[in-house]
Amino acid sequence: MVQVRIAGIALDSRAQPIILLKPLFEEPGTGRILPIWIGSQEATSIFIAIEGAEAPRPLSHDLMKTLLETVGAQVERVEVTRIEEGTFYAEITLLTSAGRLVLDSRPSDAIALASRMDAPIWVEDEVLDEAGIVDQTEHLLDEDEKLEEFKKFLDDVDPEDFQG
């Protein structure tokens, strides 16, 4: 089991949201990253939570948090437990007055709740091995930096610089 952090939310070529999970102690551009396709509502909910923003009205995951806090339950951890035929599965472990409870969940809902309740997120090694991809986010940052440098060059260049 590997503890991960939310590395970001991205859109694929069809504008479908993807949550990117990265092992906790790996630097950007190294190791692997786990992309999980999620719904747009869940992506919005996760984005709001990781940005520390608030929706004008409580979202479903805000309600879940309020319900858990009201009954004195805590989210101990969230786990992405398996992948079957391209579908990811997760569990939410709650600490309640009745003891520890493990609930089946979609990864997107579990991650949205964990991001609101500062709960750790874990991924089974087999899931990361099967669905993880090489992390090239540092490469993307390098490309963005090169593009910015080129834009700055174009802004500052004088046509007379090219005269012989």
Could you characterize what this model shows?
- The chain has 164 residues and is α+β, with helices and mostly antiparallel strands.
- It has a single domain (2-135), classed as Bifunctional nuclease domain, CATH 3.10.690.10.
- It is 37% helix and 34% strand.
- It has an eight-stranded mixed β-sheet.
- A hairpin with a 5-residue loop joins β1 (2-11) and β2.
- α2 (60-70) crosses α3.
- The longest helix has 20 residues, at 137-156.
- The protein is globular and about 55 Å long.
- The N and C termini lie far apart (63 Å).
- 26% of the residues are buried.
Q: Give the strand order, joined by hyphens, for the main sheet.
A: 6-5-4-7-1-2-3-8
Give the name of the CATH architecture.
Roll
Q: What is the ordering of alpha helices and beta strands?
A: EEEHHEEEHEHEH
Secondary structural class: alpha+beta
How many strands appear in the DSSP assignment? 8
Number of domains: 1
Shape: globular
CATH superfamily: Bifunctional nuclease domain
| Largest β sheet strand count, sense and barrel closure | 8 strands, mixed
Number of helices: 5
Proportion in β-strands: 25-35%
By CATH, the topology is Bifunctional nuclease domain
Average pLDDT = 86
CATH class label: Alpha Beta
Q: Level of helix content?
A: 25-40%
Distance between the termini: 63 Å
Would you identify the regions where 5 or more consecutive residues have pLDDT less than 50?
Answer: none
Rg (C-alpha, Å): 20 Å
